[in-house]
Specification:
This is Omega-6 fatty acid desaturase (Delta-12 desaturase). One of its GO terms (biological process) is lipid metabolic process. GO terms for molecular function: oxidoreductase activity. Keywords: Membrane, Transmembrane, Transmembrane helix. A three-stranded antiparallel sheet has the order 3-4-5, with no helix packed on it. A two-stranded parallel ribbon has the order 1-2. It has two domains: about 30 residues, no CATH class; about 325 residues, no CATH class. The longest helix has 28 residues. A hairpin with a 5-residue loop joins strand 4 and strand 5. It starts with a helix and ends in a 15-residue tail after the last strand. The protein is mainly alpha-helical and about 375 residues long. Helix 10 crosses helix 11. It is built from 17 helices and five strands.
Length: about 375
Amino acid sequence: MSNHLNSSFAEPSLANPLAPDLPLPHRKIIRSWLIPMAQGETAKAVLLLVFDAVLWLACIAGTIFVESLLLKIVLGVIAGFVTGRIFILGHDACHQSFTPNRELNKVLGRIAFLPSLTPYSLWDVGHNVVHHGQTNLKGFDFVWAPLSKAEFDALPAWRKTLERLYRSGWGPVFYYLIEIWWRREYFPNAKNKPGDRPVFLKDNLLVTAFAVVWLACLVAGAVATGQSILLGLVTGFVVPFLFWNGMIGFVTYVHHTHPSVSWYGKKSEWLRAQPFVSTTVHLTFSWMWGALMHHIMEHTAHHVDMSVPLYRLKEAQNTLETILPERIFIEKFSWAWYFDVARKCKLYDFENKAWLDFDGNKTADSVRVVLSPAPVAQNG
């Protein structure tokens, strides 16, 4: 019997991949394949956090005590990258996948979010509830949500300029800093705040206190070593923080923006699709960048099952790609590819499932992925 016929009658598995032309199983079935990998380990998690925290502190201290301006900048950039690594650990803790202990995850998550000045509880709502709960559903998932041509045309000139910058390929640092961190996380106004829970204020005060201590240490270090305070603040605070914002802005962009990835304007249509598989991109690298970023680029597996810890995401991603051949968007990273995506993915036609440029010209058709037909109303 052919592999296709086997796939039609047997439960999909590593030994029996699902034929590309067959309907996708329900998410519960897909998640069941990853259950063996959804096991956190406290010792491994704590060790990862301690290692990255020590590395971050060493880089920040280096910006104070080294005299070379070039080395100060390099250390500031590395500190920004390590900020991203630590944030990814906090990301797992916020998903309750970092360790098996819920209360410990909350503590470790808040610690891991300090270098990025991310209020834990606000990010929890925006990411876990909104982004993961409604991935690529316009009006709900706000992260890199594309505008329609009509929405873009209705914007004032200054806002159009900002949108062009955001989607130029050079804009992730500005997008995340302004649209996510400033507007939705760091003391957000009533319009952007998801309620008035006291913990939101407490977490903002926590990261503010950390920032004050961080800045005070940089000033004290500059005074003690007879160096420029301004230079110390720029290389020890501004450079790491801006690099971090650029890094997270880039990562969130390439995770869900792709010429073949669809966005949905209607929840009924979104519900019939398989957004946990079809709206994410697995970006691969020729070197070890994926491992250096704690495997956050194995993103399809993460969206299928958030309980899989980062140190098992590679195995989980390989499992999905083996059982679901030709179903997952896999791209090998290059800067040429990235800027081609930025060129094509400016606006979105939600009705026709197509990416547009800012003039409204179609640049790419995204893939329609439907799990089941829409229900048909029955008469009488």
